[in-house]
Amino acid sequence: MSVAKEKEDPAPILSWSRRARILVADDDKFYLKIFSDLIAELGHDSLTVENGLEALEKVKDYRPDLVISDVVMPGMDGFELTKRLKHDPLTMYIPVLIITSLTDRESKVKGLDIGADELLSKPIDESEFRIRIKNMLKVKRYENFLVEHGKRLEGEVLNKDAQLHDAFEKIRNGYVETVYRLTLAAEYRDKETGGHIKRISLYSQILARYLGLPESKVESIFFASPMHDVGKIGIPDAILLKKGRHTIEEFDVMKTHTTIGGAILRDSDSEILKTAQEIALTHHESWNGAGYPLGLKGTEIPISGRIVHVADVYDALRSKRPYKEPFDHEITCSIMEAEIYRFDPTVYKAFVDCRDEFKRLFDEHQEEAI
Ligand SMILES: [Fe+2]
Fold first, then answer.
1. Model-level pTM?
2. CATH assignment, 187-364
């Protein structure tokens, strides 16, 4: 074995400017010398070995751009070498030129059949050898160019994907913040807090996900639920801010925050605003039909309304109101248990299963600024 020239570039890609690396396998030293001289004349480097096994050992380190192999060699012949190169994903794209003194048609067909890219016969015609090498390297360079170009395009697409994802996240966060701020503005007179609005979002998200709703619906409920009381903007101060319990007439006015909210949010094409309208209208409906504004019953109430109803009752019981002090988690749960008929049994069961999460969210999201 002899190295005609030291390899210069360990990169496997054959660029237009780089000298090619050619691995030559032949047990005949006379031919090895001829091949390496011709390759040097063409301006390329070569590494010569004397059998197929040695060629296989060298190919992974040398990473040739082209393999030239004799057929009949001791140990492993050129057919076996070609077959192994073409079956290994790391080497399958290296073009192989088989040079054979076998003249029968069957051997030539076999060579091409196992994946050799070109065949030449011994004794070799030097001009033909040069042309074949040039052509094979040209094809290899085009292939490499296309592979590199494909990778570059793939990288650009991934980069654009990442940019789009970032842009989407910014818009999403901006949207959530806008909803929180506008809802807070609408409820400002009612002394609702950023903490309350966030908690309703988070409780509703937990219940929707636990109930196995599609993720797109979970997301709509997450974004829409903070707007459940937006209709309070239409309730007169004297009633909304009254200290102490409302009269029946006043409470009838308070109830209209559901229909006012529904009217504010109606006729939108946005899934989120459609869900928000649904929630605004139905978050005070009760499973037993005793809620308001329509007295809907059971599954007449949309699932979003049934979910936010449970979330809103929990949060209202835990919070201070003009007419009541806050209850702790355990008392809140026992009050809800006593009024279980108000809730969709499936949603209530989800609440029971997730109530530790509710407690954690209530503790973590207190009177926070948005
Ligand atoms: Fe409400």
1. 0.58
2. 1.10.3210.10
